[in-house]
Design brief:
alpha+beta; 26% strand; 39% helix; 5 helices
């Protein structure tokens, strides 16, 4: 999970001001797809980023480890991500009205999803 903040910072550093929300989300998708294979901790691997309806950016992670599955079910929550803000990413998400989702898969089947709306980030 330590790498989540690193990846957020890396991804948002490539977003420039003046772009549309769609362009920013597409840039995040492009950069997250370049980071495929990054371990977010405990064997939870980033497999892709998604643009959902030009309104949301989705991180998609997968694991085949039951241990990682149990750990993420215990620790990952909306509040977990909100408590890390303000970050460079959360500021851009809030400013550009981007919904952020973290989708965690176990053997490529969805087991948990966390959604943070722009208004929920700390200032």
């Amino acid at each position: 999970m330590k790498n989540i903040l690193f990846s957020l910072t890396l991804l948002i550093s490539l977003c420039s001001y003046g772009q549309t929300r769609t362009a920013i989300i597409n840039n995040l998708v492009k950069q997250s797809n370049k980071a495929k294979g990054m371990d977010a901790g405990g064997g939870m691997i980033l497999i892709k980023g998604l643009n959902e309806n030009n309104r949301a950016f989705v991180y998609v992670y997968n694991t085949s480890s039951e241990g990682a599955l149990k750990q993420y079910k215990k620790t990952v929550s909306k509040q977990f991500f909100i408590n890390q803000s303000p970050t460079q990413y959360s500021k851009v998400a809030k400013k550009n009205n981007i919904i952020t989702k973290w989708r965690y898969l176990y053997n490529y089947k969805k087991f948990i999803e966390v959604k943070v709306y722009p208004s929920e980030w700390k200032d």
